[in-house]
Specification:
Elements lengths: L15 E4 L2 E4 L4 E6 L4 H14 L8 E6 L4 H14 L6 E7 L5 H18 L3 E8 L2 H6 L14 H11 L12 H5 L3 H14 L11 E2 L1 H8 L9
Parallel strand pairs: 3-4, 3-5, 5-6
Antiparallel strand pairs: 1-2, 6-7
Helix pairs in contact: 7-8
């Protein structure tokens, strides 16, 4: 029995099995998250993994997380290497990276590289999950809509202000509880990120400042997050 409603795009793929009442997954979905950061982002996604699978020992989603410390195009190369060496096929590959000071051409090109890799695979979907300027924008959107293009360092005091208001201390990079702290506000973050996306229509990622695609990833996992609140 499926642990999540089937997506139309999944039908007919090798991890699906036909039955009289429609289609169903014959095994849990496999996801690979490859991040530019080696601590902040992996900590966040480990929190996601723990929230999905809980403490009951039932693995609803197989989520592998790799903090590579590579940038943009090199991150895509690392992801493909991991896919080739994997023992199990992944349904989704999430390439998570920040704008930082990387050249616009490199930053934008990952979107096309993911599209090409998906077309070539036919089975695995590659996703370019970029943030401009940084992943802390996604964290801040849990509290309010924010559309000013500021440096990455300016996000930290703003996050501290919001976190202190809810009794969760100050913001520090590499907090290992950041996903759990932000989870109750994830619906707000998705709505705010979608508004930013709408404001940035027609702009390439490098010019979408601020902007992020993390909401598209979180929407994939939202059905598994029983404790997510509006």
């Amino acid at each position: 029995m499926s642990l999540k409603p089937d997506k139309k795009s999944d039908k007919g793929k090798r991890w699906m099995s036909p039955r009289k009442d429609g289609t169903r997954k014959i095994k849990i979905p496999y996801h690979l998250v490859v991040t530019e950061g080696t601590k902040t982002e992996p900590n966040y996604f480990r929190g996601l993994k723990n929230a999905i699978n809980g403490k009951d020992g039932l693995e609803k989603v197989h989520l592998e997380i790799s903090g590579e410390g590579a940038n943009t195009v090199n991150l895509m190369t690392k992801a493909k290497q991991l896919v080739r060496s994997a023992g199990n096929p992944y349904q989704h590959i999430w390439i998570v990276y920040d704008k930082d000071d990387f050249p616009a051409e490199n930053f934008n090109s990952v979107v096309d590289l993911c599209r090409i890799a998906t077309e070539e695979s036919g089975e695995t979907e590659y996703h370019a999950i970029w943030s401009n300027q940084c992943v802390e924008l996604w964290f801040l959107l849990h509290f309010s809509y924010f559309h000013s293009d500021i440096s990455r360092d300016e996000y930290y005091p703003k996050l501290t202000q919001h976190l202190e208001k809810i009794g969760c201390g100050s913001y520090k990079k590499n907090r290992d509880d950041i996903f759990a702290v932000l989870l109750p506000k994830i619906q707000t973050a998705i709505k705010n990120a979608e508004k930013l996306e709408s404001d940035n229509i027609g702009k390439p990622p490098a010019l979408s400042a601020p902007g992020t695609q993390l909401h598209t990833m979180m929407k994939e996992f939202l059905p598994y997050l029983d404790n997510a609140k509006a």
